[in-house]
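Help needed: design a sequence for this.
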């Protein structure tokens, strides 16, 4: 929601897609998701820039392992920085910009096979809640923007919004977003 309010053009495009595909003011249903590619791209772009579990779960090397010329010794604890991978300029064009369009022509998905985008981790410990989480994110975000108009508080503009992040096991917005909903008739 914060990225959408900071990027009104993206919000407008998402609302247009929802209005044309399911009709303005309607809640999104599970069967609608596959027909909403722009909403899907928004969710992927959000997980790229703001992965909810930025360092995944810690791993331990089972044996001495060579990775990109570095030796990871047996027994070492390994943290995978999904947050940094999502913003790596050698992988992503304009990495700090919120641009869902980058996923419209791309096969990259969050299911743990494309290592440039791993908000749910990967391998044997991949998040088992992924299918539920992905459905819920589309249903919730899609319904919030299709049923309500949203405004920022007085004095807050897309340009001066505070987007600082608070790092921990999970990633949070340092300043919670305060947005005002207006029910669409
Ligand atoms: C946006 C929502 C969510 C995100 C971004 C997320 C992300 C993650 C990540 C990154 C991991 C660590 C995976 C790894 O290190 O390879 C994880 C593990 C886990 N997640 Fe999620 N998760 C989400 C929602 C859920 C939901 C809805 C459930 C349950 C209904 C769930 C249950 C779990 C469990 C049980 C683990 C531990 C798996 C293991 O250690 O074997 N998660 N999640």
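Sure. Designed sequence:
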């Amino acid at each position: 929601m914060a990225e959408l309010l900071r990027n009104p053009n993206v919000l407008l495009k998402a609302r247009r897609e929802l209005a044309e595909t399911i009709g303005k003011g309607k809640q999104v249903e599970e069967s609608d998701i596959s027909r909403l590619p722009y909403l899907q791209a928004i969710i992927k772009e959000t997980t790229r820039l703001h992965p909810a579990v930025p360092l995944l779960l810690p791993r331990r090397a089972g044996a001495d392992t060579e990775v990109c010329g570095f030796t990871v010794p047996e027994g070492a604890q390994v943290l995978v920085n999904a947050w940094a991978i999502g913003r790596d300029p050698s992988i992503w064009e304009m990495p700090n910009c919120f641009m869902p369009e980058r996923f419209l022509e791309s096969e990259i998905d969050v299911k743990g096979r494309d290592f440039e985008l791993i908000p749910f981790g990967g391998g044997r410990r991949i998040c088992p809640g992924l299918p539920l989480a992905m459905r819920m994110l589309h249903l919730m975000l899609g319904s919030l923007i299709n049923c309500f108009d949203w405004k920022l508080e007085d004095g807050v503009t897309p340009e001066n919004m505070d987007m600082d992040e608070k790092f921990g096991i999970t990633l949070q917005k340092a300043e919670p977003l305060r947005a005002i909903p207006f029910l669409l008739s």
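The domain at 2-174 is CATH 1.10.630.10 (Cytochrome p450).
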